[in-house]
What we know:
There is one protein chain. By secondary structure, this protein is α/β, with parallel strands linked by helices. It has a domain at 5-69 and 99-171 and 268-333: FAD/NAD(P)-binding domain (3-Layer(bba) Sandwich). 34% of the residues lie in helices and 26% in strands. It has 14 helices and 18 strands. The strands form four sheets. A seven-stranded mixed beta sheet has the order 5-4-13-14-15-12-16. The radius of gyration is 21 Å and the shape is globular. Flavin-adenine dinucleotide binds next to helix 1, strand 2, helix 5 and helix 10.
Amino acid sequence: MSTRHAVVSGASIAGLSAAFWLRRTGWEVTVLERSETFRDGGQNVDVRGIAREVLARMGLTEAVKEQNTTETGTVFVDENGEVIAELPSNGPDGATAEFEVLRGDFATTILRHLPEGVEVVYGDTIAEVTDDDRVTITTASRRVLHANLLVIAEGVRSSTRDLLFGDQVDRRDLGIAMVFGTIPRTPADDSRWRWYTTTQGRQIHLRPDNHGTTRAMLAHARAADLTRRDRAGALAEMRERFADAGWEAGRVLDGFDTSADVYVDQLTQIRMPTWHRGRVVLAGDAAWCVTPMGGGGASLALVSGYVLAACLSTTEGLAGYEKWMRPLVEDVQDFPGWMVPFAYPRTRLGLGLTRVVNRVMTSRLLAPLTERMTQVAYTEQALPPVAAAHH
Ligand SMILES: Cc1cc2nc3c(=O)[nH]c(=O)nc-3n(C[C@H](O)[C@H](O)[C@H](O)COP(=O)(O)OP(=O)(O)OC[C@H]3O[C@@H](n4cnc5c(N)ncnc54)[C@H](O)[C@@H]3O)c2cc1C
């Protein structure tokens, strides 16, 4: 049997995991990445639930553990930095998970361990696709690729998904803008994730990393869509919104001005009735972005690459992949409607209530319940088996 060829679009967690597992199961693999060079930026992600098993099967558990961000726990703080409540972080899936890793370190680890023979092409994107007895892909640079499978792993704002599945994409804007960046560490930054909530739907997060810097995030529940602005415009808007936010707002805003690594997101869930058609399949955020509000996006992206290749190595096929992944995704996307207003209070009264509930939820009595809320990518299903590669 001749070797089957897969084209994977997007070289981040989902695309690299798919490339890794498709190659392992005997495919020829070409990865197309829009960016001119490998994107190694981004802030904290974690590996939870069944994703730990996939990581182990890739032989990457130790390599990812070595990149641990060194975070030891998570606390809610007030405007003076005093701890109001501490989230449970014991066990593998607390707010601070056992596998906390920077997105860039994680993606780089998978890239470095790709099996021999995966071709990665930078600075090119898909312009046209036809899918009859095989997929024919024409790229923006007029390269023509013939394949038996196209995996779209281009993240939440995937253009190839919109081109091929446009009418089936249900985008749900959660009304929250997040700006992530890397800022200088100060002596006051400790080993914990410090989480500050204040009025007008604003949060500030500071987290340690393993590179001698601090990872900061500003979240705002009432901002206009910042992804439509350029970096300077997005930062100017956040500066206005956070001018009187208190705590470390000024330092974070100043740090972002010179941060080499600013990532702006407008939290948008992607929901689709199907993730495949013909020989084309979606993986990771392109298919089902769960947003940081749900959590576990990197874990689901990693798992999707494995499940896809495993199902294609047996008779399960793309329908089997979708059937296996869907319950995991729905579990994370279906959070209760009160969560956003609760996490992003507007008024002093609302803030007081949020703080009281945070104290109660993190009390010893309710800790097991809170712990369960941070668990994602948990499933009773065993991972589908991988059939031996056949050439
Ligand atoms: C540079 C970067 C920084 C990030 N930082 C954070 C962060 O700080 N916090 C957070 O919560 N999440 C962040 N994310 C998102 C996070 O990585 C994902 O939510 C999650 O890991 C799922 O990954 P994914 O592989 O499905 O999608 P993504 O990680 O979004 O990756 C998509 C990949 O596809 C590429 N791409 C996009 N369009 C095309 C196209 N048309 N053709 C070819 N390639 C394309 C992108 O350049 C990217 O490499 C970041 C993503 C990136 C790429």
